[in-house]
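Table S7 (text form). Paired inputs.
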Amino acid sequence: MTTNKSFNLSKLISVLLLAAGAVLLTIVLYFTVQSVRELVYQNGIEKRYSFQAPEETVQVFHGVKVQTYRDGPKVLLELQEEERGKVKVPGAKTDKKDDMEAFRGIVQYKLMKEKKTGEEWFIAALRLTPEVMAEGDQKFQTFRINENGVVKKSNFSPGSNTKLETQWVRGLTEEKIGYHTSLPYQDHPVLTLISTALAGLVSLFVGLRLRKREKARKYEAA
């Protein structure tokens, strides 16, 4: 009776280890593929576009005036002196009026240019949620101005953003946001994949050893 219980427990452990190993290796495969896709996408973006980050809070782009300033607990973004974006923030009012460094992590300007055609866009991006929130819960708002002065607004969170929207909000959070996956921009991404893969292989190896030992016991009992 004891032998049978031991055998059943060993079988259960082997099944769990095999399942865990399979799941871990599947995760590694998924993020490896996504990381390769992310690097290919990012390389394509860098070849096609150039980005600059203007530092002054007041900018004029093809006749459209963009201004960011703080009003008490709120940071306001104005286009043509009309309020378009607003974010509530903690902390004391800053005295820096002409430097976007005062609004780091809240509002960001970017000048985007297509290298081949020379076409330009001005991007004003806001982070609507606290930075302490998890990446998937972050919410962003962007205003894109083209050379004709036409403004397009978009609201999104990671997972619903387009490839270019991903570029527009980079720098608004300490963690770099990816389009396919953020893994390549985290600390030691290769080490993370390798350690996870090793854990999966060890689980599979131990699980298979247990199964082999079970079969040997079953053969001896027969």
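Next pair, protein 2 of 2.
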Amino acid sequence: MIDLLKTKVKKRSKTDFIVLTGSFLVIFLLCSRLDVLEVIHNFSRAHETYEVDEIFTALILMTAIFGLFAYRRWQDVKILSLFCEELSMLDPFTQLPNQRALERLLLQLKQGQSYPCSFLLVDINGLENIKNTLGLDVSEQVTIELLYQISLKLGTDQLLINRNTSQYMIFCPVGTAQSNAFLIEQIKNIELSSRFNSLQAVKIECVAIVLLHFVELQTIFEALDEKLLQL
């Protein structure tokens, strides 16, 4: 949705620029043919007591003031646009980066050529059963606790990303097969402490791939899903 809005704003800006430029040229040609400024000058000299010529000074000052006002409003809109774009990259429930943020990350990787790197897929099974038996609140508490425990296993350069309600991605900028296996083992050994016996049904599966070059996001998802099905 935000990409569509940004595209519309860019098109509208181009249209406005063309319209304003065309309007300026038309008005300039009309005024030059009618000698408007000379007419006003002669009128102001003939009726000097009315100080008509001072209107131009006031108009120039008002133009400068409105220009400053427009610039400040443009800065405000720019800040709000960046804020809205940042919000669009966060999952509203977990406050984790979402798939849109993941796409932006891949674009940066493509431009920076930061390879090899790794992506891990964390699949949480059993949350739907908890939701059905204990309610939505308990299911959300379990999800938050799991994400907190997973975040404790991550390094400062690793990023946890929301894919959907039961699957999460982990980006490792310096990930090898050995480091991925160690991280997977740590995540799979996470235990939940709760008075609800139903939480024992929660099971965490985790798979990883190492990227040696840029690939599309859909290709990454397909490779991780295929590995997950093989477990």
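Helices lie at 2-34, 36-46, 54-88, 99-112, 127-134, 136-153, 177-188, 217-229.
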